[in-house]
Amino acid sequence: MSTALTPAQRAELGALLIARMATLEEEIAAQEGAGGRVAAAAELLDDSREGGVQREADREVALQRTSQAHGELQRVRDALDRLESPGFGLCSACGEAIGMPRLQAKPWTRHCVACERQMELGQPTPPRL
Ligand SMILES: [Zn+2]
């Protein structure tokens, strides 16, 4: 299988992924920090020290808010893991090159535009033989 990307293109996408990862980690840290402050405030107000359930609920809310960022962070990390593999930049459904403009916009994507559109329509893509 030929590689779809030049080393320079891989390096560019790697830089994009690392920048995105840093942004997401900052977002998650800020959100989790805010949740932590809510929990600390609840503890201060709780003289009986039986507010564990409420603190747990606050924490749940904070976790839900960060779960989307966590999901994207996971996709970015997966993409970084795949960056040096020959298949990076190739659609995992049809094997065609995803294309540099699409990769620059979404470096973590695993599918070309055509396959992603088909998946959004709920039609599985038959493997190309
Ligand atoms: Zn495809």
Automatic annotation (TrEMBL):
Keywords: Metal-binding, Zinc, Zinc-finger. It holds the Pfam family zf-dskA_traR. Transmembrane segments: none annotated. This is TraR/DksA family transcriptional regulator. A zinc finger (dksA C4-type) spans 91-115. GO terms for molecular function: zinc ion binding. Residues 88-117 form the Zinc finger DksA/TraR C4-type domain. InterPro entries: Znf_DskA_TraR, Znf_DskA_TraR_CS.
